[in-house]
């Protein structure tokens, strides 16, 4: 770092994204993207908007909010759009945390949460998951601060039911409780049904996983209108045109294409069940996953070696270095053919 780098940023330790190697073509099972292309309507909408890139996008995100409101059965004033849900998370942490009010998160979860705390000088409060990697709601009753839980959880795929979610919401009436539902379409019930009952709830979702729009960068916060208004104040103090025109219309079309969305999600769930069965057949221990990835380990080979051996064979999975999960690899559920290739390489390897 240069001598010019702000002293306020001494706490930053940037997020390390999964590899996106450009050197050769891999079977990419490392960053939880969808193996399927975006909805055809989304692709057409993006192409149409490309011709209008001379104009700024709608700073109110009107058409996208409208499409999201219809799909989720909400009002536009309950919705905030972000440049990926990562940006939505930034707005939330910026709006509701401070040096005196930290963010409590499961100790094994999305790596971006502690990174954001570092960037914003917010206390990061890790709350250990149980030995079986479940969230134990009473642990959050003792915590002072806001709460952010990925549900299903990042890295593990383990889901906390809405009963447990409500226990946490009730114990934090003066804090925001963020449920990051990046993977909710692949399993579990969304907490959107609780929005009417809890003014402190913020549900975050993304178009990156189940909607095949990771490169489009579109995410949402769903919450009480006053919470959304606070978030909009931050957004408008940062970048009122935060969603580009192509992504805004592509995302709106994608939300309208319900049958394509359902067919993609169904295929991933079916392929996940296949993959889990095969992995267990090979002696892997696999955490119960409600997401589009599985966390798996085997006695026969350590997580890091397995990752490297698969990479040599043209298959990318993710090895995470968190102490509690370093024996595992995280495998994104791709297309059926990709998973068959993975399984056959694993058979050779072991
Ligand atoms: C992938 C992911 C995100 C980020 O999604 P983007 O919308 O692509 O920024 C956020 N939270 C969790 C838990 C994720 O897994």
Order of helices and strands: EHHEHEHEHEHEEEHHHEEHEEH
How would a textbook summarize the main sheet? 7 strands, mixed
Task: Label the overall shape.
Answer: globular
> If you compute it from the alpha carbons, what radius of gyration comes out, rounded to the nearest whole angstrom?
20 Å
Structural class: alpha/beta
> In percent terms, what proportion of residues is strand?
5-15%
Helical coverage, percent range: 25-40%
Q: Kindly report how far apart the N and C termini lie.
A: 44 Å
| Mean pLDDT figure | 97
Characterize the structure shown:
By secondary structure, the protein is an alpha/beta fold. The chain has a seven-stranded mixed beta sheet with strand order 2-8-7-6-5-3-4, sandwiched between helices. β9 and β10 form a beta hairpin. α1 packs antiparallel against α8. The longest helix has 24 residues. It is globular and about 55 Å long. The termini are far apart. The mean pLDDT is 97. Bound molecules: pyridoxal-5'-phosphate (PLP). Pyridoxal-5'-phosphate binds next to α3.
Task: Please sum up the structure shown.
The chain has helices at residues 40-50, 62-72, 84-96, 112-120, 138-141, 162-171, 225-236, 245-256, 258-281, 303-312, 336-349, and strands at 27-28, 79-82, 103-106, 124-127, 146-150, 177-180, 201-206, 219-223, 285-286, 293-297, 315-316, 329-332.
